[in-house]
């Protein structure tokens, strides 16, 4: 999985006043969990642009004066009106410990059902995976090459190399539905087949 580097500095004071001061200075208060003790730090809001405002998922390298940590974003709080980032929680990664997170679904291939007039519906935009940090995928590939009209692609049909898919086996990742135009054409064809030929005597 691709990584983004966040450079910050430790927060000596973590009270409400200190937090407000940090936000007024364009900094985002953060906490890193998963180690012996929580690490309180702050970083410039612009540093989180490519981490937060994207459909992709990344691990994070947090660079602080006291050291460097590998982590994932665990929780984020936004202002209810301005949508500015108020606070972020991170969880520290350890090379020998599996981690659970959601990663995007990437649709690949061409569906015969879509070529025949069906409509592709992606039911799951993200799936929950569990893996060692080094094996976390950037995305889960969902190949729709065998989907005919009316077919569904279940999670059990997806390849999971070096990671586990945690969603239930009956999870539908994508499906091809018959379009209104195709349905109308089928209905008209059925009516035409039942109608008597012109000029034919009963």
TrEMBL record:
Q: Name one GO molecular function term.
A: structural constituent of ribosome
Which residues does the UniProt record annotate as the domain Large ribosomal subunit protein bL25 beta? 98-178
Query: Which Pfam family is an annotated match for this chain, by its short name?
Result: Ribosomal_TL5_C
What is the top-level taxon of the source organism? Bacteria
Tell me the ranges covered by the Large ribosomal subunit protein bL25 L25 domain, including all copies.
6-90
Which GO terms of type biological process are on file?
A: translation
Which N-terminal stretch is annotated as signal sequence?
Answer: none
Q: Which terms in the GO cellular component ontology are assigned?
A: cytosolic large ribosomal subunit
Instruction: Output the Gene3D superfamilies linked to this UniProt entry.
Output: Ribosomal protein L25, beta domain (2.170.120.20), Ribosomal Protein L25, Chain P (2.40.240.10)
This protein's UniProt keywords: Ribonucleoprotein, Ribosomal protein, RNA-binding, rRNA-binding
The portions of this protein that span the membrane are none
Family affiliation: Belongs to the bacterial ribosomal protein bL25 family. CTC subfamily.
Query: How does it associate, per the subunit comment?
Result: Part of the 50S ribosomal subunit; part of the 5S rRNA/L5/L18/L25 subcomplex. Contacts the 5S rRNA. Binds to the 5S rRNA independently of L5 and L18.
Entry function: This is one of the proteins that binds to the 5S RNA in the ribosome where it forms part of the central protuberance.
This one is known as: Large ribosomal subunit protein bL25
- Which source organism? Flavobacterium rivuli WB 3.3-2 = DSM 21788
Q: What is the lineage of its organism?
A: Bacteria, Pseudomonadati, Bacteroidota, Flavobacteriia, Flavobacteriales
């Amino acid at each position: 999985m691709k990584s983004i580097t966040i450079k910050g500095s430790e927060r000596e004071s973590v009270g409400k006043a200190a937090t407000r001061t940090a936000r007024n200075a364009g900094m985002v208060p953060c906490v890193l969990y998963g180690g012996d003790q929580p690490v309180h730090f702050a970083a410039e809001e612009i540093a989180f642009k490519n981490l937060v405002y994207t459909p992709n998922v990344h691990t994070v390298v947090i660079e602080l004066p006291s050291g460097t940590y590998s982590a994932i974003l665990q929780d984020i709080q936004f202002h209810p009106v301005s949508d500015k980032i108020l606070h972020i929680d991170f969880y520290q990664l350890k090379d020998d410990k599996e981690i659970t997170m959601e990663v995007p679904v990437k649709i690949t291939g061409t569906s015969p059902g879509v070529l025949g007039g069906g409509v592709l519906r992606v039911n799951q935009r993200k799936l929950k995976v569990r893996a060692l940090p080094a094996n976390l995928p950037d995305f889960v590939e969902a190949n729709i090459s065998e989907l005919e009209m009316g077919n569904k692609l279940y999670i059990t049909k997806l390849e999971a190399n070096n990671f586990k898919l945690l969603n239930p086996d009956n999870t539908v990742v994508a499906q091809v539905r018959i379009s209104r135009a195709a349905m109308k054409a089928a209905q008209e064809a059925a009516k035409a087949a039942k109608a008597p030929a012109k000029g034919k005597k009963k």
